[in-house]
Amino acid sequence: MTALVLSASADGVTTPPVAGYVPAIKHVFVINIENKGYDATWGPTSAAPYLAKTLRGQGVLLNSYYGTAHNSQPNYVAQLSGQGPNPQMQADCQVYSSFAGSGSGTGSGTPAPGQAVGSGCVFPAGVASLPTQLDSRGLSWKGYMEDMRTPCRHPAANSVDSTQKAKVGDQYAARHNPFVYFGAITGSSECAARDVDLSQLPKDLASISTTPNLTYITPNLCNDGHDAPCVDGRPGGLASVNAWMQIWVPRILNSAAFKADGELIITADESDGPQSDASACCGEGPGPNSALPGITGLGGGRIGALVLSRWTAPNTWSTTPYNHYSLLASIEDVFRLPYLGYAQTAGLNRFGLDVYNSGWNG
């Protein structure tokens, strides 16, 4: 008999107190690029000057922000659930395998809080995620996946994932769409309305009432910088990231929801790869399903993150160590939600006055 054991707080029963310096943000936007270390993205010779200079000048740069794993897939999952990787996730879920629980888990306050113990890629409905938390509070969310075309698109259960490589006209990657790795989401009739193609974003941004509380955006395999060159002949890498950002980020920043009470976080899933940087921060260590979350080290490397909002001062920076679990905990703070998985880690840094640094009065 297999079992999944989660921590007591992972079911949303208890909500930790939230510091008074967390502003009244009601709309959070998250954009991830792919496989880019801190120096490449944010350094003086960055091939994405709109991101590294123009946008960077409008917000606070978190220069000690780290990925939590290699390869890509477990980093996205970490942002939405606080679940650590297992070997199949570290291999980017070449097979869309169902998660098989084994043994017993660990509870809150232990070195591995709220973890589903076992192996596989698609967590069963009992494993909570940020979207299911938001649903429980009557808050809205949407994932916007470029080139997905068919809503809630994912491989058939336990079949080979055909989206691992880009094709001309179809550069969607399921492994960069964390929503489809939770059975509670894919098993819901709402998945097709909530996990949609990026082309729907402009319509949703047209008014505050149609903008979700959580907007989570994944560009396609060219525009997120993963491929270089791209199958359609574009350069890829940070050059294509830069071009994409110049189109899509102004739409967010000029939206009524962002101007009213929005926060935009731009980061990467991981650094260039486990052989180049598998460093970690924030007390990350071996998990119950993987001794080395970063394959050759404990983390996904230093990647950096940029936060923009009316509560963040332009052209500032923070040296506080953060990672993807910190991001999840910080979003949960915004929406007054309990912490899931490794977002419960004792002493984990969450966005504070180093990020909400504009001198506003709470």
Automatic annotation (TrEMBL):
Sorted UniProt keywords: Hydrolase, Virulence
Record-linked PANTHER family: ACID PHOSPHATASE PHOA (AFU_ORTHOLOGUE AFUA_1G03570) (PTHR31956:SF8), NON-SPECIFIC PHOSPHOLIPASE C4-RELATED (PTHR31956)
Protein name (Swiss-Prot/TrEMBL): Alkaline phosphatase family protein
Species, as recorded: Jatrophihabitans telluris
